[in-house]
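User: structure tokens for this one?
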Amino acid sequence: MISTTNGDRPVAVQDGKYVDLLEADPGFPRSLKELFMRDDGLAQARGAAKKGLAAGSCVTGRLLAPIASPGKVICIGLNYRDHAAETGVEPPPEPVVFNKFSQSVVGPEEAIRLPAVCQTVDYEAELVVVIGKRGKHISQADAGKYVAGFMNGNDVSARDWQLQKPGKQWLLGKTPDTFAPTGPWLTTADEIADSRNLPIALRLNGRTMQSSTTRELIFSVEELIAYISQLVTLEPGDLIFTGTPPGVGMARKPPVFLKAGDVCEVEIAGLGVLRNPVVADA
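Assistant:
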């Protein structure tokens, strides 16, 4: 999605150009979530992209979060073996699941805003799965059929709220506004040969803080979808943040937390670079 002088437009990224899918196909849906609700949505997108590129139907503007208002933002904790080791805990026998509110989602170049009441805000580079069709009780063998694509994500976390409040406030520590940057675009599942073999990194002000590979995932994308869908119906446009590798700020000695003026960049092979500045919340 891209914001232009003619409003928000669905686009395809081709050779560094943003192809206006709505201009190429006037019947094209206005959002990716609507697209995934159509049985032939991805085929329609490919057709519109090919037609638009040939016709030169390209636009400029500001990239937005690919899925601006997901119905669910589901997150997985402690899902990298090397991250579990750095935190000094045993890898969990089952996925650790929590969530964020959809209003925490922002796009590339949008600011991560630090609430005045949060003093220790951390970064977490993550592979984000975008669900492409509705399903429940999905088997692990069939789970790949429910994946529309993948994105970079940053599971920004207020550690003081998450871990130090009475009873621990995981939800409030994870879901402040702007604490779920995603993008810069969605890469469709057919373009990712193996979601368990992707280098993943986070840079803070140009310095590499996290560097690993999705080979370290304890639970695969397919296992997560099967596990979650035992209880929850997954819908088109739902997001699953799949966990973070080692190098998070709270595990460093001394700890490193986000401050106004910082810039975070998340990069996963094949998914582009998600860049977000950090500012103090007004």
